[in-house]
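Hi U.,

Before I forget, here's the chain from the pilot set. I'm dumping it here mostly so it's searchable later in email.
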Amino acid sequence: MTAIALTIAGSDSGGGAGIQADLKTFSALGVYGASVITALTAQNTKGVQAIHDVPAAFVTAQLDSVFSDLTVGAVKIGMLSRPDVIEAVAAGLARHARGIPVVLDPVMVATSGDRLIAGEAVAFLRDRLLPLADLITPNLPEAAVLLGEDGADEAGAEDQARRLLALGARAVLVKGGHGTGPDSVDHLVTAGGEARRLAAKRVATRNTHGTGCTLSAAIAAHLALGRSMGEAVAGAKDYLTAALKAADGLSIGSGQGPVHHFHAAWG
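Structure:
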């Protein structure tokens, strides 16, 4: 049977993040991608110029349409900017996605620094969606927001992951891309309390647009292919690292360009 992954996220008109990055990642890893669009953004490599939220009822219609026909093997959730959309997604997952791995990337700020979520939506995200997620993938600033803190460095990442686990997620991956050391270190903590440190050499490139979307989508793709959580996270980190290393081979826009999703296929 063909492996299928579903992305529930916002659209990036520049093609480097969001739905577009997710579908590229699924395809690069040999998984068929379906999508539920939660918001439209006017966006390019220089930033986000405008956001148009999709009505919650239409998000529900997309979810029902996909799940009524396709055999979804994993779900990735990205940009959810409004409380009513978060509620629609939570209700849709409760109806359709029992037993299906769910990866939640709590997208709050774009690589450019533009805020992508309304302030009142953070509590909805934490209270409604975290308990439905098999894995959440916040970066250091996002983990701090979810915990109501000012921030954290890599030294506190594992502790952040454990406290986020207590909020209801089954596993937490706190990403270290915002760190400053020679290695980019992610911390994976699972429900049993097992902690794993995943390190890769930090890649020197300005083309980092869509890194968080790409990593969470790659994890979902590996889960749809039947891999364990540990295998999925490690495989996704390897894929993203290679996509970052190849990113300077692309010439896209005049700002922070995208990672190279098709580095293996394009040569």
